[in-house]
Amino acid sequence: MSHETTRAIVSLTDRSPSISAAEIVAHLVPPRQFDGASLDNYRPDPQYASQTEAVEAVRAFAEPAPAARGLFRRRAASSSTPGLYLDGGFGVGKTHLLAALWHRMPGAPDAGTKFFGTFIEYTALVGAVGYQGAIKQLTGASLICIDEFELDDPGDTMIMTRLLGELADSGTKMAATSNTPPNALGEGRFAASDFLREIQALSGRFRTLRIDGTDYRRREVEAHAVVTGDLDPAIDAQEGVVSVDDFAAVIEHLATVHPSKYVKLIDGVDAVALRDVAPLHDQTQALRFVAFVDRLYDAQVRVVASGVPLDEVFGADMLAGGYRKKYLRAMSRLVALTLL
């Protein structure tokens, strides 16, 4: 019996989504590729002992604190360390470990008392409902996980520091990750120092854990984003809902959609096809594209493209600038998405 491909073509530029505070909170769970993430199925690279050590550290962090009684209750609570910071390069499994921690920690069956999101998702929540509204939404959580903590926006960092401080005071545990470029001076130890300095008053509440290793997405071969000369056969090979747009049109459209809504922009899309990819020269456009790539990666949406390979859209001047970490992360993820 012949198999007939089922495919629907849509355009991202036709979509102008909206998102409510409740929907933002509902999305504060691990990306679907980490639904089954656990400490048991994390596969440490045997060449790096710190990866095995990280598993045990996360396991210990997830254990409930010993119950304190009577006059010693307040002292025991204040002496605990409610924060864990996972420092390391791309693709060493930090997000897997963070998701495994989220799954391991106690919470309501609907995950209503623990949250997992990227830095931009938490700042988007503050932007949508205000600071006090965000506190109201998150207070009472047993755990707050922040993936890809960003240090390049002082205003957002201060807001998150204040937010996490209030939540920690109410008894919430916190865990965070951020990336260190593979060739960074000091192999990432300065990233941990930057993190602790920027979160200021919270620094004493975090234990920093260094995870060494190479990007698992490139362990076997130094890969590059797949590019095709004729996009139509690649589109025909897809199943489900496929968005087809010119790359330049998508970049322009992203400027009309708040980054908090990018998750809805790709809602229900199984593959994204981009025609005539070209280098980006405007940093604001590049940063919007990075945020868009993050949402594609979280949803594991396959990407097919023609033109310049997607991991080459960020120019040398961008990679040498202050947002280098973001661009390198996006490049790594674009390689993975075109190889799905």
UniProtKB/TrEMBL annotation:
Keywords for this protein: ATP-binding, Cell cycle, Cell division, Nucleotide-binding
Organism expressing this protein natively: Frondihabitans peucedani
InterPro entries linked to this entry: ATPase_AFG1-like (IPR005654), P-loop_NTPase (IPR027417)
Pfam family, any one: AFG1_ATPase
Highest taxon above the source species: Bacteria
Keyword DNA damage among UniProt keywords: no
UniProt cross-references to Gene3D superfamilies, sorted A to Z: P-loop containing nucleotide triphosphate hydrolases (3.40.50.300)
Entry protein name: Cell division protein ZapE
GO biological process, one term: cell division
